[in-house]
Amino acid sequence: MKIIIAGAGAVGTHLAKLLSREKQDIYLMDESEEKLSALGNNFDLMTVVASPISIQSLKDVGASDADLFIAVTPDEATNSMACMLARSLGAKKTVARIDKYEYIEPKNQEFFKRMGIGSLIYPEHLAAKEIVSSIRMSWVRQWWEFSNGALILVGAKMREKAEILNIPLKDLGATDLPYHVVAIKRGNETIIPGGNDEIKLHDIVYFTTTRKYVPYVRKIAGKEDYPDVRTVMIMGGSRIAIRTAMYAPDYMQVKIIEQNPERCHYLTTMLSDKTMIINGDGRDLDLLKQEGLYNTDAFVALTGNSETNILACLAAKRMGVEKTVAEVENIDYISMAESLDIGTVINKKLIAASHIYQMMLDADVSNVKCLTFADADVAEFTVKEDARATKHMVKDLGLPRGATIGGMVRNGEGILVRGNTLIEAGDHVMVFCLKQTIQKIEKFFN
Amino acid sequence: MINYKAIIRVIGNLLLLETMMLLLSSGVSAFYHDDALNSLLITAGLTGTIGLLMSFFFRKSPNVFTRRDGYIMVTASWLAFAMFGMLPFYLEGHIPSITNAFFEAMSGITSTGATILDDIDSMPHGLLFWRSITQWFGGLGIIIFTIALLPFLGVSGLQMFAAEVSGPTHNKVTPRIGITARWIWTIYIGITALLFVLLILGGMGGFDSICHAFTATGTGGFSTHQESIAYYHSAYIEYVIIAFMFISGMNYSLLILFVSGRFRRALKDSELKWYTLIVVVVTLFITVMLWASQNMESEDAFRHALFQVVSLQTSTGFSTTDYMLWPSALWGMLLLVMIVGACAGSTSGGLKCIRILVLFKVLLNEFKHMLHPNAVLPIRIDKQVAPNSLLSTVMAFCLIYLIIIFGSTLFLSSIGIDFMEAMGCSVSALGNMGPAIGSYGPSSTWNSMPDAGKWLMSFLMLLGRLEIFTVILLFTPNFWKRN
């Protein structure tokens, strides 16, 4: 597959790295040679120093026979223009990164298609959605919905109160459990557990379950005394902050603390009076106390500085805030932030890249999510006629070590998979596996 | 410096317009064979000659207007209009005193509706018509009429438009000011015509209908009868007039939206919501009070309450009953409604709902600010954040409004008027209402006021009609400095 990525910013580079590992033909375009030079030498891809809105350079990189054209420069107008040009030159699919909510409203999709922009991606909105869903349920580290919520993946950190510690998984009551443990993150290591593995204190455990049994998972994870989040304090009035405040449900009171007075004024023009804008330094603990940090249920740090965000979240935790979320744009810091006990870590690049990644995958694998902190992939397969997986019950399939079936969706209904489940053709199966094993898994379902 | 030649030419043009209206009134006078024909014709001749001379001598004046020229021109135009407008009353002694004639003329063109006539019914038809048409003309504004008709003002028209139209903000609904002005006049004429037809259908005579249509849409309040609308004893006529006074109290840019079918955008307007809310709440309150204290029938109580509230809030000043006979708490309510006024950009007077709304939001924010000293608390109008300059303009306006009311009250009381009445008159004149309270209430006239008071009230009417700043600016030393 020939993929052209325009814009070697954070999202573009991450996506290029991700895709080059998949053995795709990647062309990365950017006007700045500086940004490209480091990449070209270390990754298996082609870098082109050219403007993505120049017709000649688009012709030069061969936009006419590209399977996918992804425009992720910081400027949405450039992205839209580049996509329209590439599409007119003959690119099959186009993706543009945009920065306006009204563009991604469903009623406008057809309009953009006509202009030659096949899909739109709005990283700030995706990040905001993730922040809101994580603070909505403060006990949850990660929350993903598959097939419109038929199956739900919940990640939670085990504390002393958890009921399932130190018991081999096979002894938990294998046949009728309403959840399935698909991954365990212990320190820096990710385990796809088998029946003999045990859950230990401070593990982050990823469960798959259906919506009905989420409260049950909450109970066995010992998280019942976590309060509902009603008051949220956001530090830093970034674009993600604006989207988060807009996306937050009405019962949540949101306060944004922003240092720059002009930015504060801008925020007031963007947001309604539901959100209170405070002009001040979010690192000033006295200010935070004045503004009621002790009564705040969730603290979200979204400044442009990853270190500040991590430290501010630590401080907020110490002051007794139950749930903290930090934006960490430096990928190397993620696991560190994780071990420092910051609730949820948000990385705009990873979210955007995995979103595009999943959009571009062909029909057989319609959905691969990058589990950001666990070093695992989630792949969604539609089972084909006569695939190997339909021949035997799951326990007899001989799935490779390091892979587990998290659940499946049959006729729109989420079903948890057990040892004696028989998979049928047409089922959507969610497989959790470590990076190396995904190709091996594919064979079972095709 | 100030372009006097151009100003004189524009005023000359304006006087020609006035001449046309005077000729129209002469026509009415001739039709009814009344004894005002001579004075109307003499005035028309005089006004026409002077207007022609002014336009002719300065026809070559450069067509450049500065901001200052605009302010002088607006104020001077209104003064000139009133000075020539009083002549028909004065010349043949229908109103023998110059003070009274000027008061009546000023009350006419500022669409106030306060009168010194103790026996309106015996006035010649020509003069009654002249009174009404000045209110109609002045209600919407003489400059905006000029802009609509005379394109030569060009871009400078915009400044004069801003100087004359009421309200703190002027949102354009069409890109060009001339088109907007034409739209507004078309709607204005349309509303007037519709009201005229509805009044005829209600059994009001043709002459009365046209005069009342003029004074209701201009939110003026001059009637052709001493008893005002109560003369007709017709619930139909009262409800029709209520509806049209209410419509005239709305922002004309909203009316343009309504007429061009953009209902949703128009209905979202927060000032319209507050305007309606205030009318409803105050009316219900008064209805209940009347019903409880006066043993009125509920429909009667409701209709009288609604009529007085809408009439005073839109600064029209018609009356169907003497509210001085109501419990005194209700006078207070009515005085409040007079100060609040209707919507910006309408023909009405008063502070306008939008300013009250802004003030309230500022007030609420002050309390919030005490709890959250670092919070950035915007003032929103229709979900848009209002710029700080607008807030200070609004507060400055309200302050000067109160100062003028207070000062004028002091002056009136010092020349022997009862304090409450002095205050009522000041509020009424500055807000262009018409009736005040006490012996200046709806059942009496302003004739008993000493001359000094009448001159002051005439000045207040002009101030109120031009939203104070335009006139007061001319009295600031900076205005006349060369910078």
Written account of the structure:
The complex is a heterodimer of chains A (446) and B (483). Chain A is α/β, with parallel strands linked by helices. Helix content of chain A is 31%, strand content 26%. Among the domains of chain A are: 2-121, 3-Layer(aba) Sandwich (Rossmann fold); 231-351, Rossmann fold. In chain A, the strands form four sheets. A six-stranded parallel beta sheet of chain A has the order 3-2-1-4-5-6, sandwiched between helices. In chain A, strands 14-13-12-15-16-17 form a six-stranded parallel beta sheet, with helices on both faces. Chain A has a five-stranded antiparallel beta sheet with strand order 7-8-11-9-10. In chain A, a hairpin with a 2-residue loop joins strand 9 and strand 10 (189-191). Chain A is globular, with a radius of gyration of 23 Å. Mean pLDDT of chain A is 83; it is low at 362-367. Chain B is 65% helix and 1% strand. By secondary structure, chain B is mainly α.
Characteristics:
heterodimer; A: alpha/beta; Rossmann fold; 6-stranded parallel sheet; 15 helices; B: 483 residues; mainly alpha; 3 strands; 65% helix; globular
In short:
The complex is a heterodimer of chains A (446) and B (483). By secondary structure, chain A is an alpha/beta fold.
Strand and helix map with partners:
The complex is a heterodimer of chains A (446) and B (483).
Chain A: E1 2-6, H1 10-20, E2 25-30, H2 33-42, E3 46-49, H3 55-61, E4 68-71, H4 76-89, E5 93-97, H5 101-104, H6 109-115, E6 119-121, H7 123-136, E7 142-146, E8 151-157, E9 179-186, E10 189-191, E11 204-209, H8 214-220, E12 231-235, H9 239-247, E13 253-258, H10 261-270, E14 275-279, H11 285-290, E15 298-301, H12 306-318, E16 323-327, H13 334-339, E17 344-346, H14 348-360, E18 365-370, E19 376-382, E20 403-410, E21 413-415, E22 428-434, H15 438-445
Parallel strand pairs in A: 1-2, 1-4, 2-3, 4-5, 5-6, 12-13, 12-15, 13-14, 15-16, 16-17
Antiparallel strand pairs in A: 7-8, 8-11, 9-10, 9-11, 18-19, 19-22, 20-21, 20-22
Helix pairs in contact in A: 1-14, 7-9, 7-14
Chain B: H1 4-32, H2 37-57, H3 67-85, H4 87-91, H5 98-109, H6 125-140, H7 142-149, H8 156-164, H9 177-201, H10 206-217, H11 235-248, H12 252-259, H13 263-267, H14 270-294, H15 298-313, H16 328-340, H17 353-371, E1 375-376, E2 380-381, E3 384-385, H18 388-414, H19 419-430, H20 451-465, H21 469-472
Antiparallel strand pairs in B: 2-3
Helix pairs in contact in B: 1-2, 1-3, 1-6, 3-5, 3-8, 5-6, 5-20, 6-10, 7-9, 9-10, 9-11, 9-12, 11-15, 14-15, 15-16, 17-18, 18-19, 18-20, 19-20
